[in-house]
């Protein structure tokens, strides 16, 4: 099939989408008949009437004649559209705003950052002992000149080279760039110019962020030789903060899962399993002590999922806080960038560097972020989705998520008052599917229509998603956004009564469609059990556990693969400080986030 025919078919189908028949059999049937008559007469009302019998729809003669005329008009318009080249960096004119109509963000002034006190540390004899240090700890060692950025850079580069054969977390090492940055940081700090807590700290970028002079593969062999002559805004801001980029890390092909064209990225806690995705490399490398922190992206769980699997603190900011300029687009109204770190405060320090408008990504609002490590959980109204912590499975048997319940006990011991709530809007995930499918189909329409997307790895389901998106009715996409506005209002109202909501099972489809911020943090370890016959159903599967409770901090019972457990902390849009404060308070009272995968210590 020629490109022209493909475009004609696309235009043909688009017309029927525009009149609400895109999801019926009628357009396909009519197209097939039209193809058989290419050398014969044009489509007439009689042709349409014949197709109606198969498609199980019915029109009047007048309507059939109008459809025939409309088809040609739609074909001409869409043919003109397809002749215009569109780089992915061109943003749609429509911008999603998670603030519901008629509502306003509370007034807020920028205040000085209040960090947690870092105990005095001495330089270790072996720098590898710093591989799992937090950003807060590393920054203090660099600031006090006990450790040089060049030394940290060489240590982390060495670990990436040593462990990547097991983890498959690196796509491209940026050694020369990193060494130049680290040397410059050494010299600046020696002269007394200290830029802040990220100065001289080595980090890794998910390889959907453009970095000038290096490939940006999007995790797909189809694009492995692709490069851009500019840096993503987030990369540039971290450069300005003095951070040292040492690697471009793996992501599942086109931000899906943990399989990329080279391999499957592995979980350091159990290298027989994947690290989840799509920020697979950032989570794996951070968990294995191969970078001080990493930047991931999330459209529907791609920061929080690999972070929870790898036992990390993964922070998905409110939609509209961090510019996506220079990042691969998947869904312009859902994509978000955020930090993957060892601690919640690390996430706050990185976020403070990368948030705010850049004048290009016009979805980003100018709104202060005020980090205060001394904020107390007792000052916040904390709700928890009770049915996610304990209850009854579909088979009638009871369950208790011991690690998640332990989080509640820890917060109570810190003075927090907790309120049980029902699961909010549990059936709204379909909106994320409609939105993502339509927007990713637009983002990758060019390579879908010219057939190039067929060269994507065979395990990827994206090609079919992109193709299917070409037939989604535009009216349905628009109406989904109208329902989305109503859902945003429901979540806005939910957070009138709660500053923070806790759950061990976030519905990321709903919270990503509303732009809600979330951080996931580790809570212990569990020995996975096989589900009972017929599956667990209802709430997430239960595991037999050794809780590592905060009061006793016991080691887990012997197991071949004790895996991290987790809690999600969600909050109101643009109030990201609140969820970070609760996560930080929990981590100050426990040490789950300091645990290290034994094979990589």
Summarize the structure.
This protein is α+β, with helices and mostly antiparallel strands. The protein has 18 helices and 16 strands.
Describe this structure in words.
The chain has about 600 residues and is of the alpha+beta class. Helix content is about 35%, strand content about 15%. It contains 18 helices and 16 strands. Helix 1 packs across helix 4, helix 11 (about 345-355) packs antiparallel against helix 18 and helix 13 (about 430-445) crosses helix 16 (about 475-495). The longest helix is centred in the N-terminal third of the chain and has 22 residues, at about 60-80. The protein is globular and about 85 Å long. The termini are far apart. The model is unreliable at about 1-5, about 35-40 and about 530-560 (pLDDT under 50).
Topology:
Elements: H1 3-18, H2 26-36, H3 45-55, H4 61-82, H5 135-143, H6 149-167, E1 170-173, H7 175-190, E2 202-206, H8 233-240, E3 244-249, E4 266-267, E5 270-274, H9 280-287, E6 293-298, H10 304-309, E7 313-316, E8 336-341, H11 344-354, E9 381-385, E10 390-392, E11 398-400, H12 402-413, E12 417-421, H13 430-443, H14 445-449, H15 462-469, H16 474-494, E13 500-503, H17 508-514, E14 518-527, E15 544-546, E16 563-570, H18 576-589
Parallel strand pairs: 2-3, 2-6, 9-12, 9-13
Antiparallel strand pairs: 1-3, 4-5, 6-8, 7-8, 7-14, 10-11, 13-16, 14-15, 14-16
Helix pairs in contact: 1-4, 2-3, 3-4, 6-7, 11-18, 13-15, 13-16, 13-17
């Amino acid at each position: 099939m020629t490109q022209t025919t493909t475009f004609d078919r696309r235009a043909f189908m688009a017309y029927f989408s525009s009149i609400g028949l895109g999801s019926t059999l009628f357009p396909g049937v009519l197209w097939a008949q039209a193809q058989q008559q290419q050398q014969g007469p044009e489509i007439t009302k009689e042709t349409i009437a014949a197709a109606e019998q198969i498609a199980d729809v019915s029109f009047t003669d007048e309507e059939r004649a109008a459809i025939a005329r409309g088809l040609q008009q739609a074909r001409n318009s869409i043919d003109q559209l397809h002749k215009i080249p569109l780089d992915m960096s061109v943003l749609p004119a429509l911008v999603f705003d998670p603030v519901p109509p008629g509502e306003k963000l509370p007034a807020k002034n920028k205040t000085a950052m209040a960090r947690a006190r870092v105990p005095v540390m001495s330089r270790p004899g072996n720098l590898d002992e710093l591989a799992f240090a937090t950003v807060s700890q590393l920054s203090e060692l660099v600031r006090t000149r006990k450790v040089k950025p060049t030394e940290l850079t060489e240590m982390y580069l060495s670990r990436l080279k040593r462990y990547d054969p097991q983890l498959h977390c690196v796509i491209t090492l940026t050694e020369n760039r990193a060494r130049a940055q680290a040397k410059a940081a050494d010299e600046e700090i020696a002269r007394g110019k200290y830029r802040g807590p990220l100065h001289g700290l080595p980090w890794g970028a998910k390889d959907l962020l453009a970095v000038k002079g290096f490939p940006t593969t999007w995790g797909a062999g189809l694009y492995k030789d692709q490069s851009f002559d500019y840096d993503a805004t987030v990369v540039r801001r971290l450069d300005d903060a003095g951070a040292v980029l040492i690697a471009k890390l793996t992501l599942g092909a086109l931000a899906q899962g943990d399989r990329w064209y080279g391999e499957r990225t592995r979980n350091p806690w159990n290298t027989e399993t994947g690290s989840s995705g799509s920020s697979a490399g950032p989570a794996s490398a951070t968990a294995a002590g191969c970078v001080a922190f990493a930047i991931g992206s999330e459209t529907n769980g791609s920061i929080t999922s690999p972070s929870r699997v790898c036992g990390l603190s993964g922070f998905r900011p409110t939609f509209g806080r961090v510019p996506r300029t220079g990042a691969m687009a998947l869904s312009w109204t859902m994509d978000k960038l955020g930090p993957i770190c060892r601690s919640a405060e690390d996430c706050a320090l990185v976020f403070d560097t990368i948030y705010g408008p850049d004048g290009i990504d016009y979805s980003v609002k100018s709104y202060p972020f005020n980090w205060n490590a001394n904020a107390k959980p007792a000052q916040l109204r904390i709700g928890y989705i009770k049915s996610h912590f304990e209850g009854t499975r579909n088979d009638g048997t009871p369950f208790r998520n011991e690690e998640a319940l332990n989080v509640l006990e820890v917060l109570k011991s810190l003075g927090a008052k907790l309120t049980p709530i029902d699961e909010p809007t549990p059936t709204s995930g379909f909106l994320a599917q409609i939105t993502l499918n339509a927007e990713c189909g637009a983002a990758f329409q060019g390579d879908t229509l010219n057939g190039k997307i067929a060269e994507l790895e065979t395990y990827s389901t994206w090609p079919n998603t992109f193709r299917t998106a070409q037939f989604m009715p535009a009216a349905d996409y628009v109406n989904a956004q109208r329902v989305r506005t109503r859902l945003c209002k429901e979540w806005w109202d939910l957070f009138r009564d709660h500053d923070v909501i806790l759950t061990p099972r976030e519905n990321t489809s709903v919270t990503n469609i509303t732009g809600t911020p979330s951080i996931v943090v580790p809570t212990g370890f569990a020995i996975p059990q096989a589900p009972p016959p017929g599956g667990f159903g209802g709430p997430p599967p239960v595991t037999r556990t050794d809780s590592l409770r905060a009061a006793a901090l016991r080691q887990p019972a012997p197991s071949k693969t004790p895996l991290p457990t987790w809690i999600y902390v969600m909050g109101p849009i643009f109030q990201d400080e609140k969820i970070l404060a609760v996560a930080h308070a929990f981590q100050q009272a426990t040490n789950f986030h300091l645990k290290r995968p034994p094979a990589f210590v």
